[in-house]
Amino acid sequence: MRSGPEPDRYAVIGNPVGHSQSPRIHALFAAQTAQALRYEAILAPLDDFADALHAFAAAGGRGVNITLPFKEQACRLATRLSPRAQAAGAVNTLLLDADGIFGDNTDGAGLVRDVTHNLGRSIARQRLLLLGAGGAARGVLLPLLLELPAQLLIANRSKQKAQQLVEEFSKQIPPAGLRACGLNELAGQSFDLVINATSAGLSGISLDIPAGLFAPGCLAYDMVYGKDTPFMAQARQAGAQVADGLGMLVEQAAESFHLWREVRPDTAPVLRQLRELRGI
Ligand code: ATR
Known about the structure:
By secondary structure, the protein is α/β, with parallel strands linked by helices. It has 2 domains: 8-105 and 248-278, Leucine Dehydrogenase, chain A, domain 1 (Rossmann fold, 3-Layer(aba) Sandwich), CATH 3.40.50.10860; 108-244, NAD(P)-binding Rossmann-like Domain (Rossmann fold). Helices cover 39% and strands 24% of the residues. The strands form 2 sheets. It has a 6-stranded mixed beta sheet, sandwiched between helices. It has a 6-stranded parallel beta sheet with strand order 9-8-7-10-11-12, sandwiched between helices. α6 (135-146) links the parallel β7 (127-131) and β8 (151-156). α5 (107-118) packs across α6 and α9 (246-261) packs across α10. The chain starts with 7 loop residues before the first strand and ends with a helix. It binds 2'-monophosphoadenosine-5'-diphosphate.
């Protein structure tokens, strides 16, 4: 009996990478859309990401997701970049083909899609607060701005980093009320959507933010998934609707899958299945 052609190969590269949900998510997408592909997790040495990537490409790999800590390095190795990857200065998706390495960043689109489609909340014309000014915040900023919120305030512990982001992104897009402030300057302001892009929740640290931040009907979104962060507890206490980043994770994966296979998977059953599996 002859076997069929080898399925196309994809991978997530990171360090650590064992915790990544991407192999599971892409296997579910592939089964749902009847795409013949294999998706694996590759642990790259911290000092040798480039070799790991080039070895996978040489072995016939068609596409890669990049996770911490290689997103910026992957951006530099790409031979072409999407505008959103360029703005983010980081990539989470690579398309490997005869033209070289195309780098994209689907994180922001994943966040926007989760908020607007899965959670049914508009970003356009809303008052938006982004907490944090590190890589996670930078990665989602352009897609958020393209939704044309009434205002987007970036608040960060180090105010200077928030100011730098505002300065940089104001050059790229007409600043629709794009402003920066320190985390300690939020008193007296309230927002329709508050997105936590700080890493504080990962260490279980609560942010020093006023309860009045959350306007009535506010959605408080933590980009972290898989744990109830102090930010989520603070927001819930203040009466906000609360969401974690699992939907963003699934949606950014769907956006990568679409780039690679030109097929858009239905994310709802995959998100449901992940929540059931994880008990969240
Ligand atoms: P990431 O890629 O996750 O964004 P990062 O680039 O190191 O990681 O950025 C971490 C972000 O979380 C920063 O905005 C950081 O604030 P500073 O720029 O002032 O350091 C924020 N952060 C981390 N721990 C925090 C804490 N305990 N309180 C407030 N902000 C915190």
